[in-house]
Amino acid sequence: MEIGKKMATLDSLYDTLSSIVGDAGILPDDQVTGYTVDDILPKVVIVPADKSEMQDVLRIASERNVSVIPAGSGSKLSIGNVVPEIGIVMSTKRLNKVIEYEPADLTVTVESGIRLSDLQKELAVHRQYLPLNPPYADNCTIGGIVATNSSGPLRLQHGTARNLVLGLHVMLANGTVVKSGGKVVKNVAGYDLNKLYIGSYGTLGIITEVSLKLSPIPPHETIFSAQYDTIQKAIHDGLSIVSSQVLPSYVVLMTECAVNGLSEQDPTLFVGFGGEAGTVSWQLDSTQSQMEQNGAKSVHIIEGESQDRIGHEIQEYSAADKVCNRIIIRVNLKRTDLSKFAEAAHELTSDMMFHLGNGVAYLRLPVTNGDDFETTVGSISKLRQQVIGMKGNLTIESAPPELKQHLDIWGPVGNTLDLMKHIKTKFDSKRILNAGRFVT
Q: What is the DSSP letter of 217?
């Protein structure tokens, strides 16, 4: 009887949603798996054609207390706590237009479902780009990048989404649309509500429109690499480059690198440069001289196809896959603690990447059938305590559901939890949006 009642309720929900968005607005069953969350299929994946349809769907979800998980292309759905069931996944991928582009002002306003790769193609016509290179380069949407405050190696020079977003339109759980910021660079009046929504993982509202600051595409780009005997030497030299006058675009250390003929066993430092050819040439000469004096085993200047390939490897390092065949851990620390952390982390894995300019580290652990999750959970928990002792934090970006159920994904948030819960209640009193998946 209960099963029959549940099926009838599901059919009723499906029919109601179909009347709002039509057949084109509901993904067919064979495409729903692309929005699987921790091996759980959503009841339905809605792809609204406009904000009006989105509002009506949220109104129905609120009336029936059905949870809604906001998504773009679904690339970051691996991040978050496990929940018993998934109601509606709301994808913004049909909201994919450029609303306003002012090349002379270096600003653009877009709908949140536009893919970063598609936006970059349009901006490149005017030799401009959005200086963000997060993972999932081919599929990630602007809304997803902003909602997760995602970034990449270019964070050293340009910051994260927090630094590049000028204004937002956000749809709250009850369908109300609110605006924050604006479309110009100098937004100085009032509260900066942009910062509240950026990085909130869709728990306070669904981002529908974003205004962004742009940059000119560098006329010349090159990667410098150096290999070392030890991780500590590589970190030391990388930090010296960060604090030097050469002003790199990024400084990244990979502990295992099997691209472009480099030795996989040697820690490899990659330093990116972009600008006028003369400036880049000076940067390369200064960096090479410094690295050779400091005892690098080998140094290389990488350009052309090899540069693209290595740049892609660095950008996609922390990307998860749908089969979840590895655990991905992110750590935020003071830069000066990275060397000490590397020693502790090496007991857990030898596969690490460090964004040395920002104090961000990623760890990858392989997952195979029959793994002892109890041992793994214990090792990760031990490492987290060491990170907390360094005044940092450790989060799990991707892991099998079995492991997530025995480990705190986000880690302790201290005395801010009550405040976060209060804000969540004010914005989403029925806890419809991303219920149970974020720290609140």
A: P
The residues near 436 (Cβ < 8 Å, ≥ 6 apart) are 67, 81, 83
Q: Per-residue confidence at 237, pLDDT binned at 50, 70, 90?
A: very high
DSSP E strands, 92-240: 98-102, 107-111, 128-129, 165-171, 177-181, 206-213, 215-216, 220-227
**Token pair recorded at residue 18:** 């179909």
Residue 387 CA: distances (Å) to CA of 334, 381, 394, 403: 10, 10, 7, 20
| Buried-exposed string 109-126: b where 16+ CB fall within 10 A, e elsewhere | bbbbbbbbeebbeebeee
CA distances in angstroms from 137 to 26, 85, 166, 319, listed in the order given = 25, 29, 22, 9
Please give the Cα distance from 307 to 136 (Å, whole number): 18
SS3 labels along 243-283:
CCCCCCCEEEEECCCCCCCCCCCCCEEEEEEEECHHHHHHH
- If pLDDT is split at 50, 70 and 90, which confidence band does 413 have? confident
Torsion angles phi and psi, residue 65, rounded to 5: 55, 45
Mean per-residue pLDDT, 276-284:
96
In the prediction, which pLDDT does 8 show? 44
Q: Residue 34 pLDDT > 80, yes or no?
A: yes
* Alpha carbon distance 357, 378 (integer Å): 30
Rounded to a whole number of angstroms, the CA Rg of the chain reads 23
